[in-house]
Specification:
The complex is a heterodimer of chains A (76) and B (652). Chain A is mainly α. Helix content of chain A is 61%, strand content 8%. Chain B has 652 residues and is an alpha/beta fold. Classes of the chains: A mainly alpha (76), B alpha/beta (652).
Chain lengths: 76, 652
């Protein structure tokens, strides 16, 4: 199984995520790609925070951002 | 990734030691017990994760700073411990993991056992220009996850005993946990948990605006707590089931081929009871026979006489001699007195006298004798019949005695056979094994019953949670004022469900892959042909090894076989997860004995061609396997004591 290098482009971006996980999320979220993107982004961020971190704030911000992204896509 | 070298500075016994790692060669470090081999594992763990999981009791009492360094320091001095792990990635990038900590020393003693400052951790990574970029502390930690993630470190750096214990003590939960850890399922689970908490937050927020939702949220929390307790019970019960199952198999294997002493002993006891009964019956019958012989024996000798007497009497009866028609004495009296019964005179020489004499001659027995003979007849017949009956009775009783004797002989033969079967075995030990088997059988059944109950409870809680969550979701949808929260909540919920489906599907797929790979590697490495039929990991994450004879034999395989199985499972996890970091094993041959050692030693040699392996061995362990490891394929280093406080690494 291959491991995919990080997505996101920050300087912590060398973390690896099991490719199987990424592909399966894509498959399970094929009806709503936005959710797939959202989850993959969360995974990379979670991988970069092996210890405790203030995830709630971050998650909520991401949820808001992705909903807005969805809304703007729908408007287009 | 490959380790190039590990540099240890002032770390415990290692004042200034560099441990080189070779590729395509088995790296062997030999050192006497207590010299500090295991501290190489501790050094790696300390450098990467800031912990020393394999410290001996002796080491725990000593400072982490090298003792010689402390003693050689004068007045107030600052001394540092530093460990560096030099790694090369597959695309030739250099990474140096480094942890250091500083201590203050006053007159040869550490001022404070706690370091003067917090340990510093940093990672240096070479860039395309060959320069190193430095990442410190929290920024550096993600690189460890790239090398050997903390959650999976025990699959890369471990002691040999772990390999032995792994499937001896492993429960399905442990196997599941291992797959979970190494395949980053923990990452998926973490996102899932965090998302779940965010969803709970949205629900709570909605509850603030609606007491009905708030009450349902509280109820939901209570059920979740009960579910958590229930899952914990299920986990414990499962653990007990696997332990009991393995123990049952272990004892079953021990008892295989041995006589069933409990059954045989039970049979012997029954036979001995029967023997006693039969002996008593036999003795009684013999006494009966004796009594009969005694009673009738004396008449037995007179049998012929009695028989003749009866014949004589019967003959006389037949001849009408008895009873006589006229009394003999009366005739004699009539002749002597010459008078007839009627009183008439009987003349001498008369016809009457002649007639009376003729009658007298014809009567041989007197009436008395005749009467006596008649009286004797019936008792004689009775004795005669008794004697005749005696023959039948003695025949019957003799037959009975021989039947009992035969049964007694059969019982004695069976007892001797049982004694022969039990001969040469430690009956008490076998009995204890039987008892242990039955005890574990009981534990197994009891826990199975508990599992059914707990699983039922779990299902109930899950249903309650689902229903309540649906109710809350509907409540949120109904309240227009909660529009925004509903929007966030719904998005999170959808994402959560995708994640949950992903996790369930991947876990199952990975379990199957690990099972197939473990089996493949196991049969590849196993030196014994036609011994094992199959290796499987079922849906409940229970591993099982099937013998070619068809029985489950995980509990009874040898130390060497168990080590190969655990190694196969570990390598399968590495392959499936994509992590191919080096493996360092402390004393891998400890639990392997006999010819298995030779095979395990050769297997490590083969594995070293594909990945970096370092084994830490005692001289005794090394002596046993040295002949199988040629210098061409191995690199040998010996840890030697220098003075009393430090060690050096020298080529062997």
């Amino acid at each position: 199984m291959k491991l995919k290098k990080s997505y996101g482009g920050n300087n912590l971006g060398n973390n690896k995520i099991n490719e199987k996980i990424i592909n399966m999320i894509r498959e399970k979220a094929k009806d709503n790609e936005l959710i797939g993107d959202f989850l993959i982004e969360l995974l990379y961020h979670e991988n970069e925070h092996p210890n405790r971190w203030k995830y709630k704030k971050f998650y909520k911000r991401k949820i808001k951002k992705f909903i807005e992204k969805g809304d703007s896509k729908n408007e287009d | 990734m490959r380790i190039e070298k590990i540099k240890l500075h002032n770390y415990r016994q290692y004042r200034d030691v560099e441990i080189p790692f070779y590729n395509e060669k088995l790296n062997i470090c030999i050192g006497k017990m207590g010299i500090g081999k295991t501290n190489i594992l501790n050094a790696i763990n300390w450098c990467l994760y800031g912990e020393e999981p394999y410290l001996s009791m002796e080491s725990k009492g000593l400072p982490i700073l090298n003792l010689a360094t402390i003693e050689n320091s004068e007045n107030v001095e600052s001394r540092s411990i530093k460990i560096e792990i030099w790694v090369t990635t597959d695309d030739n990038q250099k990474i140096i993991f480094e942890r250091k900590v500083r201590f203050l020393i006053y007159d040869g003693k550490i001022k404070n056992p706690v370091a003067a400052e917090s340990p510093h951790f940093e990672v240096k990574i070479s860039n395309k220009e060959g320069n190193f970029e430095i990442f410190k502390d929290e920024d550096a930690k993600p690189y460890i996850e790239r090398f050997v993630p903390r959650g999976t470190k025990e699959f890369f750096f471990f002691d040999g005993e772990r390999l032995d214990k792994y499937f001896r003590e492993a429960t399905a939960e442990k196997i599941k946990h291992s797959i979970f850890q190494i395949c980053q399922m923990n990452l998926l689970e973490k996102v899932k948990e965090n998302l779940e908490n965010v969803i709970k937050d949205y629900k709570r927020e909605a509850g603030k605006n609606n007491p009905e939702i708030d009450a349902k949220n509280k109820k939901l929390e209570d059920i979740r707590k009960s579910l958590k307790d229930c899952k914990s019970q299920i986990s414990k019960v499962n653990e007990q089931i696997v332990i009991a199952k393995n123990k049952k198999e272990e004892y079953n294997e021990k008892l295989r081929g041995l006589p069933d002493t409990v059954k045989l002993q039970k049979r012997k006891n029954i036979l001995q009871e029967r023997k006693k009964e039969k002996e008593i019956y036999l003795d009684t019958k013999k006494d009966n026979k004796h009594d009969i012989l005694f009673e009738i024996g004396k008449n037995l000798m007179l049998f012929e006489s009695i028989k003749n007497s009866i014949s004589i009497i019967e003959e006389k009866e037949r001849k009408k001699e008895i009873p006589p028609t006229i009394d003999r004495n009366l005739l004699k009296h009539l002749l002597e007195n010459n008078k007839c019964i009627c009183g008439r005179q009987i003349e001498v020489g008369s016809q009457e006298e002649e007639k009376l004499n003729e009658l007298l001659k014809g009567i041989k027995l007197s009436s008395f004798i005749s009467r006596e003979l008649l009286h004797m007849k019936n008792p004689l017949i009775s004795i005669h019949d008794e004697i005749k009956q005696f023959k039948i009775k003695t025949k019957e009783i003799t037959e009975e005695i021989s039947r009992y004797q035969k049964e007694l002989d059969d019982i004695n033969t069976e007892i001797s056979q049982i004694d022969n079967e039990l001969g040469g075995f430690d009956i008490e030990k076998i009995r204890m094994w039987h008892q242990a088997y039955q005890d574990f059988e009981k534990i197994y059944s009891e826990n199975h019953a508990k599992l059914i109950i707990f699983n039922g409870e779990k299902e109930g809680y899950l249903n309650d949670i689902e229903n309540l969550e649906n109710e809350i979701d509907n409540d949120i949808k109904k309240k227009k004022i909660l529009e925004q929260i509903r929007c966030y909540h719904d998005f999170s919920k959808k994402a959560y469900n995708v994640l949950k489906n992903t996790k369930d599907t991947i876990m199952d797929e990975i379990r199957k892959e690990v099972a197939i790979e473990t089996k493949r590697i196991f049969f590849d490495l196993m030196w014994k042909e036609k011994t094992f039929e199959d290796v499987t990991i079922n849906e409940d994450y229970n591993i099982s090894v099937t013998h070619v004879m068809g029985y489950e034999c995980l509990g009874s395989i040898s130390g060497g076989e168990r080590e190969i199985l655990a190694l196969s499972f570990t390598l399968a996890l590495h392959k499936i997860s994509g992590f191919d970091s080096p493996i360092i094993i402390d004393r891998p041959l400890t639990m392997v004995s006999g010819e298995s050692r030779e095979y395990v030693a050769k297997i490590f040699l083969e594995l070293a061609l594909e990945r970096q392996i370092m084994l830490l061995l005692t001289p005794d362990e090394f002596k046993d396997v040295r002949k199988f490891w040629s210098n061409d394929f191995c690199n040998f280093k010996e840890i030697r004591l220098v003075g009393e406080r430090e060690v050096k690494l020298e080529a062997l």
